[in-house]
Amino acid sequence: MTFNDLQLNPAILQALAKENYTTPTPIQEQAIPSVLAGRDLLGCAQTGTGKTAAFSLPIIDRLLNQPRKSGSIRPIRSLILSPTRELAIQIADNITAYCQFTDLRCTAIVGGVSQRVQERALSRGTDILIATPGRLIDLLNQKCIQLHDVHTLVLDEADRMLDMGFIHDVKRILSKLPREKQTLFFSATMPPEITKLVKSILVNPVKVEITPVSSTVDRIQQSVYKVEKGNKRHLLKHLLEDPSIGSALVFTRTKHGADRMVRELKKADITAQAIHGDKSQNARQSALSNFKSGATRILVATDIAARGIDIEELSHVINIDLPNIPETYVHRIGRTGRAGMSGIAISFCEEEEFPYLKDIEKLIKKQIPEVKEHPYPIGSFVPAPQTDKPSRPAGMRPSKPKARTHAPRGKHHAGQRTV
Ligand code: AMP
To answer: Which of 226, 16, 215, 2 shows the shortest CA–CA distance to 102?
Structure first.
């Protein structure tokens, strides 16, 4: 099948040719005809499957076929809700590319940046609005935005909206939309609250389920290094001595851990920046664009900040901590191996995380090969010798061990593995 077979508007086909899209991905093949026909859609799909184009191409097509009301400023006819700012901006970038040969306008409004610029863009009118729930609610409260002409709504990554506590905001936004509309609902997982929401808003939806979790990760070369917590940073620096790791997205569980890792890497003359919820939107965007342009080699991220971000040609994902939710592992490593490319995912696993590793292997239905030959195996961590300190007055808590040394066990090539 080609995009021509999907009977999309020639202006869209021209943009797809320019973006070098030749064949539709499975989700595009399955979703586009139903969305063009005006059906509601329930999509169970991960990022990396091409789901953004799957919903936005038919939306653009339908907008091109519907004449705009003359006279007034152009009303918002399509609303796309995204849980994170990065994902919203990325969706807007994609849609702008798909609309480049049309006169449609697309605007993203996200939190963390000045509202003024967004208000100005809205006052000029936009056909497609991509928004994070919080900022949209703010603008609705201030009556800067009207949603009564919206006839297509997309809820992207609905399960993540739930995780991030946005579900009430989403429900409030839903109450401001016309009853009669087409709704496209995407969620990688279907917890009960999401199923309830689906039942309450979708009418006789077409269901599209793409790439069950296990096959998404099949083409990604995965490995695990068992290592003590205190040696993880040393192991990371050791692996990064390998010049074949041109760039890597590194995951940590906490924001604090991300900042600490960036400091460690910088000390070792490795360019690195962090992206997490405590950073301003500008800092996050600039870290992301530096990483995309190659100005920084390492982007250290927490799960929420990195959710859905699309980095073309990302070769390596490194998990400093294993997530306790196995699906998160799949989301993380799915940042590499996109659109049919292969990728490498390396995970560090300390003893406390062994159960997480088991859960992940159960979910992906395969064992992740362990690299046993590396300089920091479990048992090699040696806390720094305690210096003689004056004895602690009664009632004071013992201080945490500070500097810790590591005991490398000879040099090995980073990629060496034993299964
Ligand atoms: P998504 O799942 O929407 O985040 O898309 C993942 C990546 O695949 C993005 O970089 C898209 O630009 C790219 N992509 C989506 N559809 C196609 C296609 N049919 N051909 C080539 N690349 C695509």
So the answer is: 16
